């Protein structure tokens, strides 16, 4: 029986490869489905013979509670952008001025979701989203459902492959037809559908979406013994990956522009969406010579297709008040389709922009999506204007009626009334958000419902909510109320850094909140500190220090802290005790490319020895660890006469 199961697994994996990678199926779908059903039955009877490489894992089945965070072996960097011919020629000039004559590989920029696929000895073991480039979400079970992802490679190699998961247009059409038949809301475009599918906690749902993938690189090109980007893609093909065959090797920037012009007019012919062209220096050794900036490689650029512009009408200008009192104008539009989605609202950014572009209600305007994401008003079609009145900036808050102010150094108009309902609600929404206290079930609508019902007036009131009060509210059943109260209770155990960030102190982001909480460890110590005490913390500047002291010395803020204490909210920070104290209190900066360690591994070594790692070089930096192609940070360290170690010296010191 083991041999029969193994034979079926191998046959079905081969058929998958032929259909989804080579696009050359050798058996009909009905025969494939019959064999797959047979294998599923056999594996259910003999689960000991089911492996991670079995094609049955592609039907899904694992249901997760949440996605775990996972670190990439090496960062997934973003690319610099080019928007026109001038940008492309400037990129080409920088490259040629630095390294001389080059060839480029042009690749289609797939409009999907960037992912990494980790292989150990040729077996797919982990898949993740790009996340922030360093930390992503583990979506292994969903990526296994993509039939173009090889579960085993043709050679036992270990690396992270990088690619773009996407939804083919035909899959998108079938998905929306099914949703429409069920009376469900439709996906606006294939990219949103692909992203939503890969973030399903139930992998069976992901399997039903029929996603695909193109691979474009690996994290360590030395592993595959290629000398050029073109060779690397050919080797990925040979290993069993699916790469995009529309790539082209060119020898001049003029040929790059010709390639772009062709796909600008022919991209609609593809069965998948593209949003630009990626241009890479072909020779890998030359890539290493050119090196990297902090965020992106110097040897590649992404040309973005021009944003689609459409005409519509402004029906009204809506004002919203944020948690810091900023009053933001938004254009309410006659709904119109832009870049695959229906747009009925567009950002107007601030009132100075409205004045500068002379935007008025009932104007015909041109809109587009900034970065293909956020709708914005580009310009007014003046020849269509009739007798529209000039729009006036608000002199009173639309929420509380308080007189507005405009600070001299800002473009924003603000409401400075501390009792403004809109600010209070937005502040509570921020407090319960994922990056702060992360209270499940307390979304924007529920917060507004609780506020309107008079059950909460500030964040501390959340911890005084009672079952009997909540169960009386609309759409609040027993299970929902119980889960909500449990989530609120659980949030009391969050570290102080989460509370600080959640309180919405101006200029105090998540990272600064963590640095301050780790330094002073409890709220009472923080309340007693002055500006100079905060400025002594690396990366905390004068602006943040001034803001936090303004808040912490305010009696209302102190009363709020007192109420949080009374309700049992944790206001201390648990700091991990280092294993050693060799570098106690020392500040390190990592720069350049490390060859023996990942950034996360190097950071862990520093923290285990009592030190800390920051992102910028200053007079407070003790050591800069400089890898290959270290740039401006190394130069600044040299100018400040800061100790500099190369990677070997760093590892040697840490081992000691």
UniProtKB/TrEMBL annotation:
Q: Which SUPFAM superfamilies match?
A: BRCT domain, DNA ligase/mRNA capping enzyme, catalytic domain, Nucleic acid-binding proteins, RuvA domain 2-like
Chain sites annotated for binding Zn(2+): 397, 400, 415, 420
Spell out the catalytic residues. 109
InterPro entries annotated for this entry?
A: BRCT_dom, BRCT_dom_sf, DisA/LigA_HHH, DNA_ligase, DNA_ligase_AS, DNA_ligase_CS, DNAligase_adenylation, DNAligase_N
Keywords in alphabetical order: DNA damage, DNA repair, DNA replication, Ligase, Magnesium, Manganese, Metal-binding, NAD, Zinc
Tagged with keyword Magnesium? yes
Q: Tell me which domain of life the UniProt entry assigns to the organism this sequence originates from.
A: Bacteria
Which Gene Ontology molecular function entries are recorded, alphabetically? DNA ligase (NAD+) activity
Q: What Enzyme Commission number(s) appear in the record? A: 6.5.1.2
In this chain the BRCT domain maps to 578-656
Reactions catalysed according to its record = NAD(+) + (deoxyribonucleotide)n-3'-hydroxyl + 5'-phospho-(deoxyribonucleotide)m = (deoxyribonucleotide)n+m + AMP + beta-nicotinamide D-nucleotide
Cofactors required: Mg(2+); Mn(2+)
The residues listed in the UniProt record as binding NAD(+), with positions renumbered to this chain, are: 29-33, 78-79, 107, 130, 164, 280, 304
Q: What does this protein do?
A: DNA ligase that catalyzes the formation of phosphodiester linkages between 5'-phosphoryl and 3'-hydroxyl groups in double-stranded DNA using NAD as a coenzyme and as the energy source for the reaction. It is essential for DNA replication and repair of damaged DNA.
Give the PANTHER family listed for this entry: CHROMOSOME TRANSMISSION FIDELITY FACTOR 18, DNA LIGASE
The protein's name is DNA ligase
| Species annotation | Salinicoccus halitifaciens
**According to the entry, what is the taxonomic lineage of the organism?**
Bacteria, Bacillati, Bacillota, Bacilli, Bacillales
């Amino acid at each position: 029986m083991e041999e029969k199961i193994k034979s079926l697994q191998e046959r079905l994996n081969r058929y998958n490869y032929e259909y989804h990678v080579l696009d050359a199926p050798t058996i009909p779908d009905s025969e494939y489905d019959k064999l797959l059903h047979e294998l599923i039955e056999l594996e259910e009877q003999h689960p000991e013979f089911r492996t991670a490489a079995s094609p049955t894992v592609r039907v899904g089945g694992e249901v997760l509670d949440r996605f775990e965070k996972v670190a990439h072996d090496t960062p997934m960097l973003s690319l610099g952008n080019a928007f026109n011919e001038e940008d492309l020629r400037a990129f080409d000039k920088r490259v040629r001025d630095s390294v001389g004559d080059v060839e480029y590989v042009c690749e289609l920029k797939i409009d999907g979701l960037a992912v990494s696929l980790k292989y150990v000895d040729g077996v797919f073991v982990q898949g993740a989203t790009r996340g922030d480039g360093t930390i992503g979400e583990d979506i292994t079970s969903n990526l296994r459902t993509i039939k173009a992802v090889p579960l085993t490679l043709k050679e036992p190699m270990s690396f992270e492959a990088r690619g773009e998961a996407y939804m083919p247009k035909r899959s998108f059409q079938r998905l929306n037809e099914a949703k429409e038949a069920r009376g469900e809301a439709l996906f606006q475009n294939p990219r949103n559908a692909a992203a939503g599918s890969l973030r399903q906690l139930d992998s069976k749902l992901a399997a039903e979406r029929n996603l695909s993938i193109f691979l474009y690189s690996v994290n360590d090109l030395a592993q595959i013994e290629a000398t050029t980007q073109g060779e690397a893609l050919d080797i990925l093909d040979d290993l069993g990956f699916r790469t995009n065959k529309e790539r082209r090797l060119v020898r001049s920037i003029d040929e790059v522009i010709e390639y772009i012009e062709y796909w600008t007019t022919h991209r609609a012919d593809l069965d998948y969406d593209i949003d630009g062209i990626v241009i890479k220096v072909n020779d890998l050794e030359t890539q290493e010579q050119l090196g990297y900036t902090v965020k992106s490689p110097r040897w590649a650029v992404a040309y973005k297709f021009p944003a689609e512009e459409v005409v519509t009408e402004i029906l009204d200008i809506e004002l919203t008040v944020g948690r810091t009192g900023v009053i933001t104008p938004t254009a309410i539009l006659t709904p119109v389709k832009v870049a695959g989605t229906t747009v009925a609202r567009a950002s107007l950014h601030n009132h100075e922009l409205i004045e500068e572009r002379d935007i008025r209600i009932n104007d015909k305007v041109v809109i587009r999506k900034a970065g293909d994401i956020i709708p914005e008003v580009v310009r007014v079609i003046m020849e269509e204007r009739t007798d529209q009145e000039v729009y006036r900036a608000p002199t009173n808050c639309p929420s509380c009626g308080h007189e507005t102010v405009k600070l001299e150094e800002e473009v924003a108009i603000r409401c400075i009334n501390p009792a403004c309902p809109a600010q209070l609600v937005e502040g509570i929404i921020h407090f319960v958000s994922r990056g702060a206290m992360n209270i499940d079930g307390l979304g924007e609508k529920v917060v507004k419902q609780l506020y309107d019902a008079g059950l909460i007036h500030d964040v501390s009131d959340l911890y005084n909510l009672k079952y009997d009060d909540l169960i009386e509210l609309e759409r609040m059943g027993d299970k929902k109320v119980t889960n909500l109260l449990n989530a609120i209770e659980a949030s009391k155990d969050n570290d102080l850094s989460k509370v600080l960030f959640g309180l919405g102190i101006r200029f105090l982001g998540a990272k600064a909140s963590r640095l301050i909480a780790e330094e002073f460890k409890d709220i009472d110590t923080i309340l007693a500190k002055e500006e100079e005490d905060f400025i002594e913390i690396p990366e905390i500047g004068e602006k943040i220090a001034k803001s936090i002291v303004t808040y912490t010395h305010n009696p209302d803020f102190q009363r709020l802290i007192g109420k949080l204490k009374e309700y049992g909210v944790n206001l201390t920070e648990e700091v991990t005790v280092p294993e050693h104290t060799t570098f106690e209190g020392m500040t390190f900066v990592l720069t350049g490319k490390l060859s023996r360690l990942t950034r996360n591994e190097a950071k862990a070594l520093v923290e285990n020895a009592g030190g800390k790692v920051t992102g910028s070089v200053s007079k407070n930096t003790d050591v800069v660890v400089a890898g290959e192609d270290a740039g401006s940070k190394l130069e600044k360290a040299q100018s400040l006469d800061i100790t500099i170690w190369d990677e070997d010296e760093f590892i040697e010191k840490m081992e000691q």
